[in-house]
Structures are given as structure tokens and as C-alpha cells.
Amino acid sequence: MAVDVEPRPRDGTPLAWEWIVNVGPPFLVLVDLQVGYMLVSRNCLENEPLSNHLIHAFFLAGTLVLLSRSVGLWRAAGSAWPGREADLRTRSRFMSALGILIAGLSALVIAAQWIPLFFLHPCQ
What we know:
Layout: H1 15-46, H2 50-77, H3 88-114, H4 116-119
Helix pairs in contact: 1-2, 1-3, 2-3
């Protein structure tokens, strides 16, 4: 019985990056939410919300970096919406298009979590 030492054919697409742009943005949303809540009591005591603004800006920037990376992967895979073909290029297009949608939604969620800091005091 022969064993296939390379189970998937190489198409030149970095498969690790395709997974990172799909899993990374929701992870950044969750970490942003957690760190933001952890800083509320400190910001209330010190009456200084700047650190919370910096945290939200940092995680939003990270999500936008992953969004631009997924756009780059999508352009490298052909810049077309994935079809019904069962080939490696379609897989890459699907993963990168999904990464664009997930990163865009994650950026909107982080921005929505950031908006109340402009109107409410941390103690409210």
C-alpha cells in the first residue's frame, strides 16, 4: 500500500494565511471586548478613557490589516466570486472572499463597541 506523502497539491496559495484571515478577525473582536471590559473599572477610577480608546483603535487596525490581507489573497486567486468548480483556485477564492466578509463584519463590530466611549463616561 503506497502512502501519499503530500496529501494536498500545492497551488502556491498560502493556506495558513487563508485560515488566519478567517479566524483572526472574530478572535480580535472577542479579545477587544474582553480587554475593553477589563479596563472599565480602571478608567472609571482614574477618570481617563484614553487607554480604552487606544485598545479599540489597536484591535480595529489589526482587523483592517487582516481585511487588506484577505483582499490581497482574493486578488491573487483571480478576483472573481467563487463558482461551483471543484478546484484549488476556487477553494482559494472562497476562503479569501469569506475572509473579506468576516473581516468587514468584525471591523464593524469593533467600531460599534467603540462608539459608546465617545458619548458615555466609563462610570455610567
